[in-house]
Amino acid sequence: MFTKMLVATDLSDASTQVICSLEGLKKIGTKEAALVHCFNIRDVGTLADQLMEMTRPSFEKQQ
To answer: Checking phi first, is residue 13 left (phi over 0); if not, alpha (psi -120 to 50) or beta?
Structure first.
């Protein structure tokens, strides 16, 4: 199976549940998972820095 995974989060409760279930993937050979949350700079423009600071606590909680 896959030894490395890329996991996207939208910082929702559903994403947290998915992240919590990743532990079970060790049983099938997954050794590493990278967590990513992206903003489209064209959508957020000059708010990017503020959005990153606002979402940092949720992102760190999911790590």
So the answer is: alpha
Tell me how many degrees the CA angle 18-20-22 measures, rounded to the nearest 5.
Answer: 75
Q: Where along the chain do its domains lie? A: 4-62
Which residue, chain included where needed, has tokens 């959508």?
A: 43
CA 10 to chain centre: 7
What was the pLDDT predicted at 60? Answer: 87
Average pLDDT, the chain: 86
CA distance 54 to 32: 27
pTM: 0.60
